[in-house]
Amino acid sequence: MKKIAVVVLNWNGAKLLEQFLPSLIKFSPEAQLYVADNASTDDSVAWVRTHFPSVVIIQNSGNCGFARGYNEALQNIEAEFYALVNSDIEVTENWLRPILDTFEQEPQVAIIQPKILDFKNKTSFEYAGAAGGFIDQYGYPFCRGRIFETVEKDNRQYDDNRDVFWASGACFFIRSDAYKALQGFDADFFAHQEEIDLCWRAFNKGYRIKYNSASVVYHVGGATLDHGNPKKTFLNFRNSLIMLTKNLPKDQFFKVLLIRMILDGVAGIRLLTTGKLDHFIAILKAHFSFYRSFSSHYKKRELRQSENYFAIDSIVFRYYIKRILFFKDLF
């Protein structure tokens, strides 16, 4: 059994697999490769079986999304480490060795993210993860290399190996024993921000999350849902509220959640005034969905929540009011 399993979650992604699976196989001699299929209706599974018979196919029960899709698949995989890789990721030579070295040298590190650059503009960081993630006091995520819509060029300013708060699900490494101890992703998220929730729960339990720039991958981004899709807006707003409900410290819970609801309202009005009615409606639906299921998410709260979860007070204020656009200027 190889120490690391590289698992690609697929749903009707034949073209992406044809484009990116060859480099993944070429540059991953240390790993056993898997494709976890969410009941695709295209010919992606048949194509993998024909062209790459060494890749193990795991067929999930349906289109389970990211969270439950990986939960189902990983039940069938034995390895010391998991690499969860989007189907629109291009890996580079020697991308696994720095990650394996970190896991072996630092036993308290449970989760690692590589440097994620933009496949379409390889001199820039990519929106989903960049050089490792953080959140502000109100649960808004941002990255080293990306704050809201501002994405930085890669000038080697984040060529380091350091602790972060969350790692991107686009290319997400985790110890299998930590994944099991945390009971995997929360399937209620379906997709988007489930990796931040998992990292927050890991953080609350004393695990460490790291970024390692020596491992480099390129991400297309938006292959399943692009940034302009109202469904993505719905999932991001709803899931962020679920994440706060589950993980906020008790003494901050009601204050932070109330302020976050006000800020979401401001965001909705801004979208409405700029003609994005469908996204405004998506935010409304996200809140109503959250309110209906609030009690079930509240019951998932752990006994212990860390007080020091956030990097700064308000990324919204600093970005939109103070016009701080780059990570290095936040502190």
Query: Taking all residues together, what is the mean pLDDT?
Result: 95
N-to-C order of helices and strands: EHEHEHEEHEEEEEEEEHHEHHHHH
Main sheet summary: 10 strands, mixed
The end-to-end distance, rounded to whole angstroms, is 45 Å
Q: What is the radius of gyration computed over CA atoms, rounded to a whole number of angstroms?
A: 19 Å
User: How much strand content do the residues show?
Assistant: 15-25%
**Please, how many helices?**
11
Shape: globular
Helix content: 25-40%
Structural class based on helices, strands and sheet pairing: alpha/beta
Count of extended strands: 14
Low-confidence stretches: none
Outline the structure in words.
The protein is α/β, with parallel strands linked by helices and 331 residues long. The chain is built from 11 helices and 14 strands. It has helices at residues 14-26, 44-51, 65-74, 97-105, 176-181, 194-204, 230-247, 253-273, 277-292, 294-298, 315-321, and strands at 4-10, 31-37, 56-59, 81-85, 89-91, 109-118, 121-125, 133-135, 141-143, 146-147, 150-151, 161-164, 171-175, 208-219. The strands form 3 sheets. Strands 1, 2, 3, 4, 5, 6, 7, 12, 13 and 14 form a 10-stranded mixed beta sheet that branches. Strand 10 and strand 11 (150-151) form a beta hairpin. Helix 1 (14-26) runs parallel beside helix 2 and helix 7 (230-247) packs parallel to helix 9 (277-292). The mean pLDDT is 95.
